[in-house]
Specification:
By secondary structure, the chain is α/β, with parallel strands linked by helices. The chain contains 26 helices and 13 strands. The protein starts with 11 loop residues before the first strand and ends with a helix.
Length: about 750
């Protein structure tokens, strides 16, 4: 229970970052955009079709700019004070931690293990924590790895808490040898012992990965016999149970392995369905009021991460029913991620200043009652259930209809909604009940995935669920720490990264057409107007079409001898607009500690993503709407790179990876763009239409040629790929297709 005294300092405070200079910059850029558009409208009749196409593209860009300006207008975040928690709270609430995984090949078990170990070792009473790992691949290797990890956790968790270790993912902590420590000291001996045990764990997992027959010698793996990843019964295993725990530093939290039933003829809703199964099983076993959701490739980098979130939930100076979830900034320990971190830092903080940040799928602490469908209107001022909501929610028939026919599940739901103290259950006694709620047919005709839990109808389950929560009137909180709360791994290699972007964009566009669409009820429901605009930001991936067109317009104008850019004063406005945008985005990167090179790589990366992954996501959705195919949840391949030293965790990494290609269609648009612009520059430079290339009249000129050069700079990896070999060179199949399209473009442009 939280202390009722308000004389003590607050557990957290909301910080506003309103900057009037930046607002002036936003408005200036918008003013330049609208000035350029008004000029095009006034002179539309004087120019050919190119002018109209350019107007369409620039209108799309200006609308995106206006949308982003609205979202960045009043940035804010929340600063927690976890050191004050012990003074204010006598009995900390329980937290269930979810780690979903689905494929032991694409998501290596040792990566899952490191994530789990980092969560088990956080600075929070072990008897208040439980870690649930959902394995949608039903892999005995993942289960074996968790069993071995539970043994190592009995060494790792006490070691971390005894010496207050900062980085609590062992694969990161042991990258470098210890320094400034006396040889033979107690810490040195414990460090060497812990490292040896971790190396043993890694070797066991590696050996089992290479030889699956090693798993057959244990009777505990009988449940995995004759199973397939898409055809197996529900498996629930209590890997470790912290029986009678009192929160001692040597204790290890509960560890539970689950794998829901899968059958070929059932729809399983990918990760979203797995998250709902995690919610049900954890509700039966521990029923913690708060849920920490972490992807299997994202470890806890700050030992106080759980305490920081709890500070926000328990701060009484805030409305006790205000916050549905706490979202941490997502950061990464590998390269080529600066653009994502910068986007989250500024856009995420801007959205946090409205109704709260968007749930982004990982690094988020949820309130179980909110996930069970409660709205702020269902609660009294002190957070207890209102009399009306009590009659609506706590009728047994209604509960069974919404949550399923399991009596144990209904009982746990009542306990969660009424905020009853968690019963000290013996987890192994609840395995049968947990298996029941994992059957394929359990959710049939219930509210799971509809109004309860993680919401279905999109492969972007995080965004879909987030809209549902904010639409009920809830707010959320955003935490951005100096030391990243979580650090994750991006897919290794450009092909996998583009595949991930395609999946995200497909899910975003799906939401525009389902019942959670921000386009529906723009002025109704309980979501604020600007917050709805934040969700409308997902339409920015639709700008892939005007962006592709705009990348080809300078080349077309050179080949067709048409004017793309205005002359005189308005050419200066165009140059100023581009310059201000570049300087502003460069400032965003430098302000976060990134280099100019990172900014250049980022500008190129966004253009490539927009004209490849986002473009193909539009095709995917079109095929779905036409009933030709369904969207597919594709798991991107993850690896555990060696990474930088421990000291480098404090700052961003440089973008040093070389651009890799494969034979996928993702690389076709970029190659086509480069070849077309090369051809246009070649025609311009050799003067095949020398008499037409003057600075007089309405023909193309130096400005269009500079536009081609700028496009080439943005697609520099593709230009270099024309001359490189191996995986760094563009495959011949892609080159031939792009060449054929480029020839057609040139022929029809001249």
């Amino acid at each position: 229970m939280a202390d009722s005294s308000f004389s003590l300092p607050p557990l957290c405070e909301r910080i506003s970052y309103a900057n009037y200079f930046l607002r002036a910059v936003y408005l200036t850029i918008l003013g330049l955009f609208f000035s350029l558009l008004s000029h095009r409208i006034r002179h539309m009749s004087e120019y050919d079709t190119v002018w109209r196409v350019a107007f369409f593209c620039e209108t799309c860009f200006s609308l995106v700019c206006l949308l982003i300006t609205c979202l960045k207008w009043s940035p804010a975040d929340t600063k927690p004070f976890p050191d004050r928690l012990d003074e204010r709270v006598h009995d900390l609430p329980s937290v269930d931690m979810f780690v979903p995984t689905a494929d032991p090949v694409r998501e290596p078990p040792i990566m899952v293990v490191d994530t789990v170990l980092s969560l088990l070792a956080v600075n929070y009473p072990a008897n208040k924590l439980a870690c649930y790992v959902s394995d949608d691949g039903c892999s005995p290797l993942t289960y074996f790895s968790l069993k071995e990890a539970s043994k190592f956790a009995k060494i790792w968790v006490p070691f971390c808490k005894k010496y207050n270790i900062r980085v609590r993912a062992p694969f990161r902590y042991f990258l470098n040898p210890i320094s400034d420590v006396t040889e033979g000291s107690e810490f040195s001996k414990d460090w060497e012992k812990t490292k040896r045990e971790y190396q043993k764990l890694s070797r066991k997992v590696e050996d089992a990965t290479g030889d699956s027959h090693l798993l057959d010698v244990e009777d505990d793996f009988e449940a995995f016999s004759n199973t397939k990843s898409n055809d197996h019964s529900t498996i629930v295993k209590v890997v470790w149970e912290n029986k009678g725990g009192v929160g001692d530093e040597k204790e290890v939290p509960h560890i539970v392995y689950i794998s829901r039933e899968k059958r070929p003829n059932y729809v399983h809703h990918q990760k979203c369905g797995a998250m709902n199964f995690l919610a049900r099983v954890s509700g039966l076993m521990t029923n913690a009021p708060y849920i920490l959701n972490v992807d299997c490739d994202m470890y806890a980098n700050d030992a106080d991460v759980v305490r920081q979130a709890i500070c926000i939930f328990l701060e009484k100076s805030l409305n006790p029913k205000h916050c549905a979830f706490v979202q941490f900034l997502q950061e990464f320990y590998d390269s080529n991620t600066s653009q994502i971190v910068v986007l989250q830092s500024y856009l995420g903080r801007g959205i946090a200043g409205i109704q709260g940040p968007i749930y982004i799928g990982s690094g988020c602490v949820h309130t179980r009652r909110v996930m069970y469908g409660l709205s702020p209107d269902d609660l009294e001022g002190d957070g207890s259930l209102s009399s009306v909501a009590t009659r609506e929610f706590l009728v047994e028939d209604s509960l069974a209809r919404r949550f399923g026919n399991s009596k144990e599940m209904v009982k746990s739901v009542v306990g969660a909604i009424q905020r009853n103290p968690n019963p000290q259950n013996i987890l192994t006694n609840l395995i049968e009940a947990a298996q029941e709620v994992g059957h394929c047919h359990y959710e049939y005709q219930t509210s799971w995935g509809n109004t309860i839990g993680w919401l279905y109808d999109s492969v972007a389950e995080d965004l879909n669920t987030s809209i549902g929560i904010h639409s009920r009137g809830w707010t959320s909180s955003y935490i951005s720490l100096d030391t990243p709360a979580f650090l994750g791994s991006m897919p290794q290699g450009v092909p996998e990264a583009l595949l991930q972007q395609r999946r995200w964009a497909t899910g975003w566009i799906e939401i525009l057409f389902n019942k959670q669409s921000p386009l529906r009820g723009m002025f109704c429901k309980k979501i604020r107007f600007r917050q709805r605009l934040a969700y409308l930001c997902i339409i920015t991936c639709l700008r892939s079409i005007p962006e592709l067109i705009y990348c080809l317009l300078p080349a077309y104008c050179l080949l067709h001898n048409s004017a793309l850019f205005p002359k005189g004063t308005y050419l200066g406005i165009t140059i100023t607009l581009v310059g201000m945008h570049c300087l502003y985005t460069l400032w965003e990167f430098v302000n976060l500690g990134y280099s100019v090179q990172s900014w250049l790589v980022s500008q190129s990366a966004w253009r490539i993503v927009a004209t490849s992954s986002w473009l193909f996501s539009i095709f995917d959705i079109t095929l779905k709407l036409l009933g030709i195919s369904e969207t597919v949840f594709i798991i991107t391949k993850k690896t555990v790179p060696a990474g930088p030293s421990q000291g480098e965790d404090d700052g961003p990494n440089s973008d040093s990876s070389k651009f890799e290609f494969d034979g996928s269609l993702h690389f076709l648009p970029g190659t086509f763009i480069v070849l077309v612009n090369l051809a246009a520059l070649a025609v311009f430079s050799v003067g095949l239409q020398r008499s037409s290339y003057s600075h007089e009249g309405d023909g193309s000129g130096l400005a269009e040629a500079c536009g081609c050069v700028l496009v080439m700079m943005l697609f520099l990896p593709f230009l270099m790929g024309l001359f490189d070999k191996g995986k760094y060179g563009i495959p011949l199949s892609t080159l031939s297709k792009a060449g054929f399209l480029a020839v057609l473009f040139v022929v029809f442009s001249v």
